[in-house]
Write a structure and sequence with these properties.
elongated, 200 residues, 6 helices, 0% strand
Length: 200
Amino acid sequence: LCIGAHNTLVRGMNITNSTASDGYLHWNDLLIDISPFAWANIGVSAAIGVSVLGAAWGIFVTGSSLVGAAIKAPRIRSKNLISVIFCEAVAIYGVIMAIILETKAGTPPPQFMVPGLEGVYKLSFSGYGIFAAGLVVGLSNLCCGICVGIVGSSCALSDAQNPALFVKILVVEIFGSALGLFGVIVGIIMTAGCSFQDTR
């Protein structure tokens, strides 16, 4: 196997004061032994999972404040639902990016068994790239969801006290929701050269 040969080669380069019976000699041995397809799928999972976590957190924060403030000011119930929609958009960013990443991390192609190390390096590059992109998208959407949730909570509470503040705080909320798009854009750029379809 190409990956097995690559691992043996790397271990041979890393042998200093240890013997082969010691097992893993360095952390890079352990990381290399993990399949690139596993790294890619972990990245896909992170993109959708952490994004949904951020959306849920935001909906929890803004929704609880909205329901509590609506007891004294029922008029805020309808228009402040836009804050919940902004939080839900964060999860949609994660779903879209997970679909894009999954198309790049599809079923292992026949070229997986490529003689030499060039194919192995290409597979590793793609696996780590998709993994990193998934983390970037997931973490940016997590922060975005928390941001939108807190601002949405403030929007509901301030609107209950003074209706003139709704539009002003909504502008802040819109800018906060754009943070998730930054992560999506960077994730797409990061995976531009990642593909398991051609390892030659």
